[in-house]
Automatic annotation (TrEMBL):
The chain crosses the membrane at residues 108-133, 204-230, 295-319. InterPro entries: Innexin. One of its GO terms (biological process) is monoatomic ion transmembrane transport. Keywords: Cell membrane, Ion channel, Ion transport, Membrane, Transmembrane, Transmembrane helix, Transport. It comes from Biomphalaria glabrata. GO terms for cellular component: gap junction; plasma membrane. It holds the Pfam family Innexin. Belongs to the pannexin family. Structural component of the gap junctions. It is found in: Cell membrane. It is a multi-pass membrane protein. It comes from the Eukaryota. This is Innexin.
Length: 413
C-alpha cells in the first residue's frame, strides 16, 4: 500500500514537472501573459486549495441533537453540504416561513472549484483564439520573436547569423502578404487600409494587428464581465465588494464578518421513519468559507487590476498602430540610432519603407520583438530590413532605366 501511494505521488510530481517545463510562447506582451498565464495559474492554484479542503478535510460540521449517533451526524453533515444552507444572523430569530428562509440561502459553496476552473478557462480562451488566427497571417510571430529574444544572449558571431536569418524570414513573410496593385480598386483598397486603417485583412498588411486588438478587447470584456458574472454566482453585489471591504478597513469595522461568506449557517432537512417524517433544523459551521472569503477578496482586487492594465495596454497599442505618424516615428528612431538615415530624401524613403514595405503587421511584429527582447535587437533587425529594402529599390530603378532613360522622381536611394 505504501509503495502504491509512493508511485502515485511520484507520477503526480513528474506530471507537474513536465508542465512546468513547457516553453512559454513569445507571440504576445507582458499584459497578455498576466491574463492568460498568471491569472489562469492563480485560479488553478485556488481551485486546488479549495478542492483539497472540500474533499480531504471537513467542509461543513453541524451541531446535532444529543440522540444522534455517529452515523446520524455523518448523514446530517452530508445532507446539509449537498443541499443548500441559509444564513440568519445570531441576533435575529429564525423565520418560521420556509420561503423567508430561502431568501438567504447559500447556493455557491459546493460549486466554487468548478467556477474557478471556468474562470481560468475564460481567461485562456482569448489566447487560444489569438494563436489560432495569427497563424493565418503569413507571419510566424512566435518564431520571429523567439529567435530575436534568444539572440540577445548568444555569442557575437551566432547573434549576427541569427539576426540575418530573422531579417530574411521577416522579408519573406512580408512578401507573402502582398498582392498585385495594378488595378484601380486594389489601389484604392490599399490606400484605405494604409492611410486610414479602414480595411482589414492579410493582403492589406494589417491582419495581425486587427486580430491582436480584438484579443485585447476580449481580455477586457472577460475581466470586467467576470465581476458581474460572480454577482449571479454569489447572489450578491460582488462588483462592489472591494469598495465595501476598503470602507470597513477605513472605518475600523470588522471586514471579515461578511454576509456573503458566513461561517455559521442553518440547515433544514427531513428524516423519514416508516410513515412519519421528522423535521430538523440544525446549526452548521462552514470552515470552507474562511478560504472562499479570502480568495474572492483577492480576486476582486486582481480582476480590477487586470481590467485597468488591459485597458491601458489596449489604448497604448491602438495609439501606436492606428496612427501612421506613430509608426513612422518608431521606425525612424531606430534607423537614426543605427546611423542609417540623415535628412531629406532618406526621411522620405523611410516613410515609404514603413508604410509600403513593413505596413501595420511588420511594425507590429517589430514592436513585439522589442517587448520580448531589447531595443538593440530591434534596431539591428530594422537596419537589416532597411538595407534589404534599399537594395531592392536599387535593383528596381536599374531595371527601369533602359526603358525610361532616367530615374523616377521620388525614388531616393
Amino acid at each position: 500500500m505504501h509503495t502504491h501511494g509512493k508511485s502515485v505521488m511520484d507520477s503526480i510530481i513528474g506530471s507537474v514537472g513536465r508542465v512546468a517545463n513547457v516553453k512559454v510562447r513569445n507571440d504576445d506582451d507582458l499584459n497578455d501573459r498576466v491574463n492568460h498565464l498568471y491569472t489562469t495559474g492563480i485560479l488553478i492554484i485556488f481551485t486546488v486549495v479549495v478542492s483539497a479542503r472540500q474533499y480531504v478535510g471537513d467542509p461543513i460540521r453541524c451541531w446535532c441533537p444529543a440522540q444522534f449517533t455517529g452515523a446520524h451526524v455523518d448523514y446530517t453533515n452530508n445532507i446539509c453540504w449537498i443541499s443548500n444552507t441559509y444564513f440568519v444572523p445570531m441576533d435575529v430569530s429564525v423565520p418560521e416561513s420556509v420561503p423567508k428562509r430561502r431568501e438567504n440561502e447559500l447556493t455557491y459553496y459546493q460549486w466554487v472549484p468548478v467556477m474557478l476552473l471556468i474562470q481560468a478557462l475564460m481567461f485562456y480562451i482569448p489566447c487560444i483564439l489569438w494563436r489560432l488566427f495569427n497563424g493565418q497571417s503569413g507571419i510566424n510571430v512566435d518564431r520571429i520573436v523567439s529567435l530575436a529574444s534568444d539572440a540577445q544572449y548568444e555569442a557575437p558571431e551566432v547573434r549576427i547569423r541569427t539576426i540575418k536569418y530573422v531579417v530574411r524570414h521577416i522579408d519573406r513573410c512580408l512578401d507573402n502578404q502582398r498582392e498585385s496593385r495594378h488595378r484601380c480598386c486594389v489601389t484604392l483598397r490599399h490606400v484605405l487600409s494604409v492611410k486610414m486603417s479602414l480595411l482589414c485583412g492579410r493582403r492589406y498588411g494589417n491582419y495581425l494587428i486587427t486580430v491582436y486588438l480584438v484579443m485585447k478587447m476580449l481580455y477586457i470584456a472577460n475581466a470586467i464581465g467576470q465581476l458581474f458574472m460572480l454577482n449571479a454566482f454569489l447572489a450578491s453585489e460582488y462588483n462592489m465588494y472591494g469598495f465595501q471591504v476598503l470602507e470597513d478597513l477605513i472605518e475600523g469595522d470588522e471586514w471579515t464578518a461578511s454576509r456573503r461568506f458566513p461561517r455559521v449557517t442553518m440547515c433544514d432537512f427531513d428524516i423519514r421513519q416508516m410513515t412519519n417524517n421528522h423535521h430538523y433544523s440544525v446549526q452548521c459551521v462552514l470552515p470552507i468559507n474562511l478560504f472562499n472569503e479570502k480568495i474572492y477578496i483577492f480576486l476582486w482586487f486582481w480582476l480590477v487590476f487586470v481590467s485597468a492594465l488591459t485597458c491601458y495596454s489596449f489604448i497604448s497599442w491602438l495609439w501606436q498602430m492606428v496612427f501612421p505618424s506613430s509608426r513612422i516615428h518608431y521606425i525612424r528612431k531606430f534607423l537614426k540610432i543605427m546611423d542609417r538615415i540623415g535628412s531629406g530624401p532618406d526621411k522620405k524613403l523611410a516613410t515609404r519603407f514603413t508604410m509600403e514595405y513593413l505596413r501595420h503587421d511588420g511594425v507590429f511584429t517589430l514592436r513585439l520583438v522589442g517587448k520580448n527582447s531589447s531595443d538593440i535587437v530591434v534596431a539591428e533587425i530594422i537596419s537589416g530590413l532597411w538595407d534589404l529594402y534599399r537594395s531592392k529599390k536599387s535593383i528596381q530603378i536599374r531595371n527601369t532605366l533602359p526603358s525610361n532613360g532616367h530615374e523616377s522622381d521620388g525614388e531616393d536611394v
